[in-house]
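WARN  no MSA supplied for this record, continuing single-sequence
INFO  ligand: adenosine monophosphate
INFO  echoing inputs
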Amino acid sequence: MQFSDLGLSEKVLRAVEDSGYTTPTPIQAQAIPHVLAGRDVLGIAQTGTGKTAAFTLPMLCRLEQGRARARVPRTLILEPTRELAAQVEESFNKYGAQHKLNVALLIGGVSFGDQEAKIMRGADVLIATPGRLLDFFERGKLLLTGIEILVIDEADRMLDMGFIPDIEKICKLVPFTRQTLFFSATMPPEITRLTEQFLHNPARVEVARAATTASTITQVLVASHGGGDKRETLRRLLRAAEGLKNAIVFCNRKRDVAILYKSLEKHGFPVGALHGDMDQSARMASLDAFKNGAVDILVCSDVAARGLDIPDVSHVFNFDVPTHAEDYVHRIGRTGRAGRTGHAYTIVTDHDTKYIAQIEDLIKKQIDWEGPRLGELAPAEYVERDRARSARPGERSRRSGRGERGERDRAERPARERSRSSDETARAPRQKAARPGADEPRHQDSPRPESRRDEPRRDDQRRKSASRPADDDPPVIGMGDHVPSFLLRPVRTKAVKTAD
Ligand code: AMP
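INFO  complex generated
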């Protein structure tokens, strides 16, 4: 099957060729002819399957005829998050380079004025998050009576985020005669009900179940003790992981994203953060820094990371085991994309066994343990394992079989980590990324994991003992203990007369 067999226009075919795509993905091959024929489509597909182009390309063809009027957009695409909306906009800009269409983005965290100006010019394509769209509509700045095509993307995520009432409202505001394209990775009952209500005789196109994990991803479980020890475990994995180029680290809660981000930064890792409380520009800056390699590690919450198209992520770490088994599938789907190999590590504590069982049930496979299983070691022994492994040079080289180079890599890494952490490009998103956490109670933000471990207290001298990794030493602040001699010189001051 070729793109030219699908009935796409000349202009669109040229754009596809310029993008370097040679063959359509299964979702594209199945969905595009239906969209071009004007049928409603129910697409059951995850991100990473090429589903964005599956609706973007035929929409461009349909938009070649006709023009948009002020305040009356012609097509509407609903996305659950701002990042996904921005990604779809990028996709229209890429494939629609020859079309001279007006594409408007309506997302939270961006000024109303700029967005209104774009809608006033007449939008051929309006990409929006549900809340901001309704906000605009209710202020009378937008009419939805001209919508010819409505796309509802990532519907199951909309459900998780509580957007279904908004979606229902929007579906009732657009003309009954519009064409609806509906995409979801899974079909829980609430989503099925929505499709029955708002799709008319849809063509059902299904490419992969959300319960399947790519066979190119190596999945392992790593036992750890809770609290700060999980951070120790993660640091050990980050230092020792085979072939690590870049990694996404998932936490279950936004608050923990901020804590972990600060902790990794303190330990010298080039790290960025992404979670729902960050303002739009900070989120975009974090994402860009990760995409362009200014930071190697991105700490994320599920909502912020869902559906992000970041090609070629070598590793995913579940710092927390997800409590919804499907989130596990989505998370580890960030790596091993498009047939590449990927690695997924999940840190497991005593509290997580129930969730691991649910995940294994869903993916219909047992995940191997790396090292001792949960319960095989006493809590303090997990800590010792992580510290010893982190500190012992050559560990990584033995695991990766890279001999001397591996050793050199390990020896150099802390320095490289530190030097990169001073890089301005990386710093900007990091500083911004940390800020959202500031509205949370101070103690939650404070990365002082070591002091709270339930292991015996050590005195300062022992804390610096050789068994600890070199970069665990407290950072030197200002000039440290050294006082330059010019500061010790006596200072001569003139007598100053004061009023009293
Ligand atoms: P999506 O599922 O829409 O997030 O797309 C995942 C990735 O696949 C994106 O990086 C697209 O640029 C890429 N992609 C989409 N269609 C094709 C294709 N036909 N051939 C190769 N890559 C594609």
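The domain at 3-206 is CATH 3.40.50.300 (Rossmann fold).
INFO  checksum written, moving to next record
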